[in-house]
Automatic annotation (TrEMBL), chain A:
Pfam families with a match to the protein in the record: ABC_tran
Protein name in the entry: ABC transporter ATP-binding protein
ABC transporter domain mapped to chain residues: 9-241
GO molecular function: ATP binding
SMART domains per the UniProt record, alphabetical: AAA
Organism per entry: Pseudonocardia humida
Lineage start: Bacteria, Bacillati, Actinomycetota, Actinomycetes, Pseudonocardiales
TrEMBL record, chain B:
Name of the protein in question: ABC-2 type transport system permease protein
Membrane spanning stretches: 23-43, 50-74, 94-120, 127-149, 169-188, 236-262, 309-327, 333-353, 381-401, 407-433, 454-480, 486-512
Keywords: Membrane, Transmembrane, Transmembrane helix
Length: 258, 564
């Protein structure tokens, strides 16, 4: 950790090809400490691939990822202690309840049993998963939004300093989304840093202070959102101007409805 | 709609490997020819029993076959869940599409042996005409019944992975197949020796003749034909009606069950799951990484239907092996029941990480030497407990059955050695040959969990080699006329030694390998087919490469079938 001017997360030239097809092409990105950075891009742009390489889930063909100066791929154990990760759409130990999952996870991370119990109970309560826990609902029976929330709880449990969240708001109801945003703001206020990927522009605009646009495996630009708004009006307009838009012509899809 | 479904079915089948279909067709034709031969070769006194036996065989084959061959349902009902069709009609359509296929054609050929039965037995031409008419009708009804029952069972087992009873049903079938391949010869040899006698006199009025010929619907066509031959028209019509009702019920059941399942994936529970008060209840296991993994594993073995299926299969495998031994006149074989359960550890554990799907990401992001060790050792311990308890419980009655406490030590020695060696092998192979199945929260069918047949083969043979010293000593101890005390002590020592060394060494190799390539192991589950391990390297590398190649092929075949 050390010097405060160091970036919380710095990706430099991260490259990955699947069967010869590039999924991430020299992705470079800086997340300053204490910021919320949004990674936005169209479907299949390489957001998930870039984040997976940043947290040690996918070995890059080239490039480095540093968490507070610690190289994720050279010193994974120390780097991963600093990271809290929420991947998108992966399995969990499905036949545990939320409380059991957090207990297992905290103990595996080497936390003290009493700390785990206290934090897990509080997280379940704040994320409104406590009713499901009381009913003994297994993770396999959770809804998509509930899975996101229990995933976020696992990311937070060991008190990381950098959160990397892949699509954290997908399928989360508006009320829970407000809770999630409040949690992330508190996390940042306490000195943490956050990267989220999303395609919901309004959300990125509301929550993030920085945004990076990624398309076809490349980072096209990085903005401080305050500057960008002045220039282009809204994030969505700036984004569309950057990645291009496929307009629907007058003569297309005329058979729809009517 | 049926026409379109049939065309779709053929389109998908064109993509399956040709040799499999040809082998299936070949085996089917041989079985059909055997059915005809049985009718024509049997003496008049035994003919009805022989044909009843053959038809019961076809019924059993259709009931068990589709469950055991993976991906048997070419058209999965879920594909059509969003089509604006009445669910019942779609069910009938899917059922009808099954009749247009090699299996149904070959079976039709076989059940038509009922006509031969009518012709051969008829004494006057007038009687023969009536009997043949009855035979044709009865054969057609039997075909409908058999195919519909088969689809209904398959759908039941699929749907049934949501309930304990369903898991049990699937486990009985798997257990029967496994024990059949290992101990089935005990039953087969008397049957083979008895073929000439059987062809001459059938079951000679034994209970088997009554069960197969009168109770099972597969025997009813023969009753109808017999009645027709005897000129008893009401009785013939009665049997035909009974057959038609049975076929109708089976078809209705199949149509209902084949409608796409859109309900919840787990059955409604009445109670909290056992041991689920993690946050409020007392903690039984140590509050360490190892205790955490062991707790998770034991809960998963208990609650996950796909893992329960492995345990229940192991138990039924043991029970049927014992049963075959007793029926075959060799009660000593029953002693293998407990060891058989323990033996399955190496086979079923060969894909521990694959069973959990992409959940391995958790270990990747929590990576530390301590967590990796805890994960491997916790899984080993979990397996040893999950399979060790039923193995021990099953060993007690079988030792008593085989007659004597003298067998207790040899059986215990083999069980302990098998659990230890098996958990070591399973740890290595699960890491080296991790193979993805359907993601855990999307599983529907009994064979969705994913397995690597190469890894299972390797595990099985390595297990046999590593167990050989213990097996040799145990067999010697069990059947020596008057074994000395030191022989018993040495057997126990060899067994415990094998178990300790096997589980420790296997686990250590697994930990080392995970430490070196944790992200690669995860990538094999997360991106199947894209990350190909390098050819060459040491033995483990080569096994990993082979296993991945097999998994990629299987995944490609699955994608063709599901159209994903």
């Amino acid at each position: 950790m050390g010097e405060p001017e160091r970036a919380a997360l710095r990706l430099d030239g991260m490259t990955k090809a699947f069967s010869g097809r590039p999924a991430a092409d020299r992705v470079s990105l800086t997340v300053p400490t204490g910021s919320v950075t949004g990674l936005i891009g169209p479907n299949g742009a390489g957001k998930t691939t870039s984040l997976a390489m940043a947290v040690g889930l996918l070995r890059p063909d080239a490039g480095t990822a540093l968490v507070h100066g610690v190289d994720v791929w050279a010193d994974p154990v120390r780097a991963k202690q600093l990271l809290g990760v929420l991947p998108d759409g992966l399995a969990l130990p499905e036949r545990l309840t939320g409380g059991e999952l957090l207990t297992y996870w905290g103990l595996l991370r080497g936390l003290d049993a009493d700390v785990v119990r206290a934090r897990a109970g509080e997280l379940l309560q704040v994320l409104e998963l406590d009713a499901a826990e009381d009913a003994g609902v297994l993770v396999a029976e959770y809804s998509t939004g509930m899975r996101k929330k229990i995933g976020l709880a696992t990311a937070l449990l060991h008190r990381p300093s950098v959160l990397v969240l892949d699509e954290p708001f997908e399928a989360v109801d508006p009320v829970s989304a407000r809770v999630l945003r409040a949690i992330l703001r508190r996390f940042v206020a306490a000195g943490g840093s956050v990267v989220i990927s999303s395609h919901v522009m309004a959300l990125v605009e509301d929550l993030c202070d920085r945004a990076a646009v990624i398309a076809q495996g490349r980072v096209l630009t990085e903005w401080a959102l305050a500057d960008m708004r002045g220039a282009a009006g809204s994030l969505e307009e700036a984004f569309v101007a950057l990645v291009g838009e496929r307009a629907v012509g007058e003569e297309e899809l005329t058979w729809l409805a009517g | 709609m049926v026409g379109r479904l049939i065309r779709l079915r053929f389109a998908i089948q064109r993509h399956t490997t040709a040799w499999k279909r040809q082998l299936g067709l070949g085996l089917g034709l041989v079985a059909g020819a055997l059915t005809w031969a049985a009718v024509l070769l049997a003496a008049p006194a035994g003919r009805a029993d022989v044909l009843a036996f053959a038809l019961a065989g076809w019924l059993a084959g259709w009931l068990v076959g589709p469950v055991l061959t993976s991906g048997a349902a070419v058209l999965r009902p879920e594909y059509f869940a969003l089509l604006p069709l009445p669910r019942r009609r779609l069910g009938f359509g899917l059922l009808a599409s099954v009749f247009v296929g090699v299996g149904a054609a070959v079976t039709a050929l076989a059940v038509l042996a009922v006509i031969a039965y009518a012709v051969v037995a008829a004494e006057a031409p007038a009687v023969a005409v009536a009997a043949v008419a009855v035979a044709v009708l009865a054969a057609a009804l039997l075909l409908v019944l058999v195919v519909a029952l088969s689809r209904a069972t398959y759908a039941l087992v699929g749907a049934a992975m949501r309930t304990r009873v369903g898991v049990e049903l699937a486990a009985v079938q798997y257990g029967l197949l496994l024990s059949g391949t290992i101990a089935g010869w005990l039953l087969v040899s008397p049957v083979v020796n008895g073929v000439p006698v059987f062809l001459a006199g059938g079951f000679a009025g034994g209970p088997a003749g009554t069960v197969l010929g009168w109770w099972l619907p597969s025997g009813w066509p023969l009753r109808a034909v017999d009645a027709a031959l005897a000129g008893d028209v009401p009785a013939a019509l009665g049997w035909l009606t009974a057959l038609a009702v049975a076929a109708g019920l089976a078809a209705l059941a199949a149509a209902v069950l084949l409608a796409p399942a859109v309900g919840p994936r787990t059955a409604r529970r009445r109670h909290r799951p056992l041991g689920s008060r993690a946050l409020t209840g007392p903690r039984l296991l140590p509050a360490t990484p190892l205790g955490a993994v062991l707790g998770k594993e034991l809960r998963s073995w208990w609650r996950d239907p796909w893992r329960s299926l492995e345990i229940r299969t192991a138990i039924w495998f043991g029970i049927f092996t014992a049963l075959f031994g007793v029926l075959g006149g060799m009660p000593e074989v029953a002693l293998l029941a407990g060891p058989a359960v323990a033996l399955v550890v190496a086979l079923t554990g060969a894909n521990l990480y694959g069973q959990d799907g992409t959940a391995l990401w958790q270990l990747v992001v929590a990576q530390s030497p301590r967590a990796l060790r805890a994960d491997v050792r916790g899984r080993q311990l979990g397996m040893a407990v999950a399979f060790g308890v039923p193995a021990a419980l099953l060993s007690v009655p079988t030792v008593a059955l085989a007659g004597g406490t003298g067998y207790a030590l040899p059986v215990a020695a083999v069980v302990v050695a098998a659990l230890g060696v098996g958990s070591g092998l399973a740890a290595v192979v699960s890491v080296v040959a991790a193979t993805p199945g359907v993601e855990p929260h999307e599983r529907v069918n009994a064979n969705d969990a994913g397995e690597n047949s190469l890894a299972i083969q390797v595990s099985f043979w390595l297990m046999m080699v590593l167990l050989a010293p213990t097996l040799a000593m145990a067999v010697g101890l069990a059947f020596a006329p008057d074994p000395s005390g030191w022989f018993a002590a040495a057997t126990a020592a060899v067994a415990v030694g094998s178990a300790l060394v096997g589980s420790w060494a296997g686990g250590a190799v697994a930990v080392a390998r995970l430490q070196a390539r944790l992200p690669e192991t995860f990538a094999r589950l997360r991106y199947p087919g894209t990350v190909v391990t390098a050819a060459g390297g040491d033995v483990l590398d080569r096994l990993a490469h082979q296993a991945e190649a097999a998994a990629v092929q299987a995944a490609a075949a699955r994608e063709v079938r599901t159209g994903r």
